[in-house]
């Protein structure tokens, strides 16, 4: 099972994460983390971010420790069609390195804007309507089973140690 999942956009928000995972996430399950060599940017026409590679930048976010199989299925459902799950090294607040899953946008689906995406601005301007839409986006999400493609992939790849 994956040890960490890194969030850099709307899933950093506790209310959004609670709606998507359909459970309360305890504060001890989350750790501040940094994703090196990327920049968090806006994407035209949507209110959530995407990443672009940038060796001179880093992205702050939150890492979820030991996500449950149900969490992983719900995250994959939430991001399906616009993002793909990939692994990347993140720096945890305690200074340790970890391999974490995160979602990277499909370039052909979500274009990268030149503007940075700001979590505070999103929270002030877009969060209320986003929270209202989250339950609708999660309708039809399956319960986890061994046949779920994302869970199969995680089991096949197994946990990785940070370099």
Layout of secondary structure:
Blueprint: E1 4-7, H1 14-21, E2 30-41, E3 50-65, H2 69-79, E4 83-92, E5 97-105, H3 119-125, H4 127-137, H5 149-157
Antiparallel strand pairs: 1-3, 2-3, 2-4, 4-5
Helix pairs in contact: 1-4
Structure explained in plain terms:
The chain has 163 residues and is of the alpha+beta class. It has helices at residues 14-21, 69-79, 119-125, 127-137, 149-157; strands spanning 4-7, 30-41, 50-65, 83-92, 97-105. The relative contact order is 0.24. Helix 1 runs parallel beside helix 4 (127-137). The chain has a 5-stranded antiparallel beta sheet with strand order 1-3-2-4-5, with no helix packed on it. The chain has 5 helices and 5 strands. It is globular and about 40 Å long.
Give the tags.
single chain, 163 residues, alpha+beta, 5-stranded antiparallel sheet, 5 strands, 28% helix
Mean pLDDT: 91
Helix/sheet category: alpha+beta
Strand order of the largest sheet: 1-3-2-4-5
Strand residue percentage: 25-35%
- Number of strand segments: 5
The rough form would be described as globular
Helix content: 25-40%
Which stretches are low in confidence, meaning pLDDT under 50 for 5 or more residues running?
Answer: none
Helices and strands, in order, run as EHEEHEEHHH
Radius of gyration from the alpha-carbon trace, in angstroms: 15 Å
Count of separate DSSP helical elements: 5
Q: How would a textbook summarize the main sheet?
A: 5 strands, antiparallel
Distance between the termini: 18 Å
């Amino acid at each position: 099972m994956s040890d960490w999942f890194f969030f850099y956009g709307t899933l950093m928000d506790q209310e959004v994460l609670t709606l998507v995972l359909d459970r309360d996430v305890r504060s001890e399950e989350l750790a501040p983390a940094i994703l090196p060599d990327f920049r968090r940017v806006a994407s035209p026409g949507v209110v959530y971010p995407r990443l672009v590679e940038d060796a001179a930048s880093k992205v702050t976010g939150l890492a979820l420790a030991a996500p449950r199989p149900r969490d992983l299925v719900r995250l994959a459902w939430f991001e399906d069609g616009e993002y793909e799950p990939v692994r990347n090294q993140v720096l945890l607040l305690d200074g340790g390195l970890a391999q974490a899953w995160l979602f990277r946008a499909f370039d052909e689906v979500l274009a990268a804007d030149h503007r940075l995406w700001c979590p505070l601005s999103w929270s002030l301007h877009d969060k209320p309507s986003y929270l209202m839409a989250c339950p609708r986006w999660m309708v039809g999400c399956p319960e986890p089973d061994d046949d779920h493609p994302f869970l199969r992939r995680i089991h096949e790849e197994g946990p990785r140690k940070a370099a």
